[in-house]
């Protein structure tokens, strides 16, 4: 099926309150433009350089989401345009995002990445580390970032029971942190669910899904 048809099918199968991030990493501008012409405006990338190049080349009404692991020294390459950074998993990174956002006189929205999967390679902090950060005095001084939610990646497994438990952990973390409503912390987004598990993620409370291969086809990393 075409990119346009895939998008239409997914859009029609998800509730209206769920935001679809079309994950376009490794895909050429021509594919992304096909999705754009079908009305999609939110795209997710996992490499800052690649996202910056695509941002240069593409229409400026696109919202670019950084969904991958972020290296502190590369924040400056996306600070002028990125609309949401999903993978914030430490305070030093948050401070750097704040510093770069300030240079551009803007506020950058961020999600705290919570480690819900069991693999060592999955980045993220524990729910209590997240809570500690937003309670800290240092955090309240960061005026150029805003924490708008949490993000998590489930373990890569066929075990639906395990995946469901992991999604539920993210949802409960969100529920615990949500009352901490401050100037730079307003939790509204739960980013969870990918091509293989987004219906389950939505059942568990996801408000933002990140879908790549079900829209653009499988990826070739070579
Ligand atoms: C690649 C990626 C996705 C999309 O994965 P698909 O299985 O292709 O839908 C979602 N989230 C993150 C963080 C990713 O890196």
UniProtKB/TrEMBL annotation:
The keyword Signal does not apply. The lineage of its organism: Bacteria, Pseudomonadati, Bacteroidota, Flavobacteriia, Flavobacteriales. This is Pyridoxal phosphate homeostasis protein. The modification N6-(pyridoxal phosphate)lysine is found at residue 25. InterPro entries: Ala_racemase_N, PLP-binding_barrel, PyrdxlP_homeostasis. It comes from the Bacteria. Belongs to the pyridoxal phosphate-binding protein YggS/PROSC family. Pyridoxal 5'-phosphate (PLP)-binding protein, which is involved in PLP homeostasis. Keywords: Pyridoxal phosphate. Pfam families: Ala_racemase_N. Residues 2-219 form the Alanine racemase N-terminal domain. The keyword Flavoprotein does not apply.
């Amino acid at each position: 099926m075409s990119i346009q048809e895939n998008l239409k099918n997914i859009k029609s199968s998800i509730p209206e309150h769920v935001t679809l991030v079309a994950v376009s990493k490794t895909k050429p501008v021509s594919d992304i433009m096909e999705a754009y012409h079908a009305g999609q405006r939110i795209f997710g990338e996992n490499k800052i350089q690649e996202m910056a190049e695509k941002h240069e080349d593409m229409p400026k009404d696109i919202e670019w989401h950084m969904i991958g692991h972020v290296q502190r020294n590369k924040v400056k390459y996306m600070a002028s345009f990125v609309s949401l950074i999903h993978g914030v998993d430490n305070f030093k990174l948050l401070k750097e995002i704040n510093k770069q956002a300030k240079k551009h006189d803007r506020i950058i929205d961020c999600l705290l990445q919570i480690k819900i999967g069991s693999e060592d390679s999955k980045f993220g902090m524990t729910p209590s580390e997240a809570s500690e950060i937003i309670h800290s005095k240092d955090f309240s001084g960061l005026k150029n970032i805003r924490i708008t939610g949490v993000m998590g990646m489930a373990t890569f497994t066929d075990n639906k029971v395990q995946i469901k438990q992991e999604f539920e952990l993210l949802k409960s973390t969100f529920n615990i942190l949500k009352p901490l409503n401050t100037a730079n912390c307003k939790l509204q987004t739960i980013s969870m669910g990918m091509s293989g598990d987004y219906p389950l993620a939505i059942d568990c409370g996801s408000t933002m899904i990140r879908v790549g291969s079900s829209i653009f086809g499988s990826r070739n990393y070579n």
